Each structure stands twice: as C-alpha cells, then as structure tokens.
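All the exercises in this workshop are built on plain-text protein records. An example says more than a description, so a record of this kind follows:
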Amino acid sequence: QSGNDESIKLALTKLFDEHRGARLNQQAIATLTRSILGEMNPDLKDPKLVTPLMKRIIEVLKVETKAGVYVSTQGPTGGTARVADLPAKEETATPASK
C-alpha cells in the first residue's frame, strides 16, 4: 500500500506541476491523477481498478491536505490547490477537515 501511496503522491505532484496555481475539484484530481498513474504503470489502466484507485487517490489527497501540502476551499472559486503555488496570504487558509 505505501508503494502505491508514493506513486499517487508523485502523480499528484506531476498534476499540480502541470496545473500550477489551479484549484481543482476532487473528481478532476482523481481522474487526472489516475490518467498519470496509468502512464506510469499501464497495469493501472485496468477498468476493474478505476473505482478503488480513484477512492485511494482521494484518501491520499485528504491525508496530504491535513499535512498541509494542499489546501481545500469551498464556494464558487473553491477547490484544492497546492499550498506552495498560492500567494503568501492564502497559505494560512485552514486545511479541509473532511
């Protein structure tokens, strides 16, 4: 599991590198991260793995958000962003508690 989690973290980093400063919703993050993981390991493209893999991506994202790597906000301009990409004033926003 921890090896998979490390792969997910690498894929999340790649995703946010490609979309620097963007706020993405969880569905977009899970879908795009799954695509990146499929490029890294073609076995992960197996349709049977879609649901469990997307659930695990969201779980890892939540852990990383609680750890302060990402920040999640609600509302029309809400979404999840990488803290390192935000202007200084936004870095103090409260991480999502979900």
In short: The mean pLDDT is 88. Strands lie at 70-73, 79-82.
